[in-house]
């Protein structure tokens, strides 16, 4: 069969990985086609992930701050929530970003094809579009087909009261009683949104800690604050049965700490995401896919087939947008003939909960497990003028240094804006900064960022009277 479209590069999927790769390749002069099954570009992150969740978290944060100010003499009264307007705000935020992408694709002459793509040979992709099947013949390909929410089989998924994160972000209603299954980042962000809007939220988590990837001390202030806002947080507990009844979704648990509520108006299942590597006909192109659906790549993002690359969620953890965009640039540059490599030392992680938790590099737990000799500098925000001024003294900033070189190797921050504060430490680690470099850098006063320099000073012993 003759191809309908011929191109130098086809990019499959238009998430942060796919659109970044397509745009970078086009900027480098590569004739590029971008294939996406949905009408809106931007993938999970822009449409049903990072961006809409942060727009809704903003609403929850404003409500929370307004309530907190009441104890300090400024009252606004009970919030009146107009769900249609709030949904519209979220959709506008998403629309601005996804609409911008469509314009950027046009400017670069990236051809976009809407439809579901599947490889049929090492140089051909078949795309099922509304106008029929189109065959794309390509010289090189970048697979950026992302991931999707894991659907635990014991839930009645045909009932709209059972939601994954995409369903929860639709904000169909504010359920009176919401169960969140999974105490990871996505589960807790959505729990924060719904609790802010007035739902009675119960969280169950199978592991013995919320946000299991982060150090336990970072999670403590969050767990404490959530304790006051949620109906309950239950660790070492799992749902073993769930059925749809007239009254709601009825669940049965097993574990150490059983919630007293068993019937919920809605349930959000947020227990992780699985890669889409197994759903794109990769075998027809000869691309190896693991049993779980991940595609293995080298540091140039090349799969086992030299002219086919893969990036983003489907090449492995952490499944984060900023990892996908960086991998995307590498893949696009290699496609264009440049000698790029993915060699980031660290990838920061952030939970945009309240307080936020952010960490980068080695965690204290990892250091212990690997027997690394690290020293810790910890600065409590109770000693920060800015934190006291915003009445948020529960946070702290923790830096981990290699005991031999005194270079910073890891950092964790908990408190408002922790996600913004962590970037300085990612840069410090990338540049091999020592404790003195950080301590001697003049940070503006009074800011939360001062806590970074102070933590380095604690490690160096120049601040001693904190505890
Ligand atoms: P995706 O964004 O998954 O994009 C893949 C695209 O490929 C999709 O548009 C899909 O429709 C398309 N596609 C798949 N198969 C085909 C096919 N066969 N044919 C055509 N098109 C196809 N990350 C962060 O860094 N920060 C956050 O704050 C954050 N918040 C999140 C909140 C939620 C609720 C969720 C669910 C995720 C969040 N993430 C966050 C994770 C982030 O969304 C992902 O890491 C990121 O989107 C991965 O990008 P990607 O390009 O690999 O794939």
TrEMBL record:
One GO molecular-function entry: dihydrolipoyl dehydrogenase (NADH) activity
Broad class of enzyme this protein falls into: oxidoreductase
Residues covered by the FAD/NAD(P)-binding domain: 8-328
Signal peptide positions on this chain: none
Cofactor(s) needed: FAD
EC id: 1.8.1.4
Family: Belongs to the class-I pyridine nucleotide-disulfide oxidoreductase family.
The protein, known as: Dihydrolipoyl dehydrogenase
């Amino acid at each position: 069969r003759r191809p309908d479209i011929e191109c130098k590069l086809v990019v499959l999927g238009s998430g942060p990985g796919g659109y970044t790769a397509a745009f970078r390749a086009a900027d480098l002069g590569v004739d590029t086609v971008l294939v996406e099954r949905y009408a809106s570009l931007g993938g999970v992150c822009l449409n049903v992930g990072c961006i809409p969740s942060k727009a809704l978290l903003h609403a929850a944060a404003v409500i929370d701050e307004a309530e907190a100010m009441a104890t300090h003499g400024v009252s606004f009264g009970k919030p009146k929530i107009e769900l249609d307007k709030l949904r519209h705000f979220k959709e506008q935020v998403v629309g601005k970003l996804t609409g911008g992408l469509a314009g950027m694709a046009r400017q670069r002459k990236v051809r976009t094809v809407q439809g579901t793509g599947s490889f049929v040979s090492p140089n051909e992709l078949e795309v099922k579009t509304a106008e029929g099947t189109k065959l794309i013949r390509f010289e090189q390909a970048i697979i950026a087909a992302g991931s999707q929410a894991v659907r635990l089989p014991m839930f009645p998924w045909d009932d709209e009261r059972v939601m994954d994160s995409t369903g929860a972000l639709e904000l169909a209603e504010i359920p009176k009683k919401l169960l969140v299954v999974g105490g990871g980042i996505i589960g807790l962000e959505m729990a924060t949104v719904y609790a802010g809007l007035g739902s009675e939220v119960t969280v169950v988590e199978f592991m013995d800690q919320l946000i299991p990837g982060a150090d336990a001390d970072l999670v403590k202030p969050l767990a404490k604050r959530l304790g006051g806002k949620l109906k309950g947080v239950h660790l070492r507990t799992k749902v073993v049965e769930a059925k749809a009844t007239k009254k709601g979704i009825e669940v049965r648990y097993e574990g150490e700490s059983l919630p007293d509520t068993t019937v919920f108006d809605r349930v959000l299942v947020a227990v992780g995401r699985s890669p889409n590597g197994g759903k794109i006909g990769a075998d027809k192109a000869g691309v190896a896919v693991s049993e779980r659906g991940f595609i293995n790549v080298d540091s140039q993002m090349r799969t086992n087939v030299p002219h086919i690359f893969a990036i983003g969620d489907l090449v492995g953890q952490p499944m984060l947008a900023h990892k996908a965009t960086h991998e995307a640039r590498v893949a696009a540059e290699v496609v264009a003939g440049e000698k790029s490599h993915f060699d980031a030392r660290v990838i920061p992680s952030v939970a945009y909960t309240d307080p936020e938790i952010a960490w980068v590099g080695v965690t204290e737990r990892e250091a212990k497990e690997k027997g690394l000799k690290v020293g810790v500098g910890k600065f409590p925000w109770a000693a920060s003028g800015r934190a006291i001024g915003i009445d948020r003294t529960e946070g702290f900033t923790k830096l981990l240094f290699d005991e031999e070189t005194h270079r910073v190797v890891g950092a964790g921050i908990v408190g408002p804006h922790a996600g913004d504060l962590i970037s300085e430490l990612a840069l410090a680690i990338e540049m091999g900064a020592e404790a003195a470099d950080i301590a001697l850098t003049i940070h503006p006063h009074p800011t939360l960022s001062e806590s970074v320099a102070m933590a380095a000073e604690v490690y160096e012993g120049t601040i001693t009277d904190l505890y």
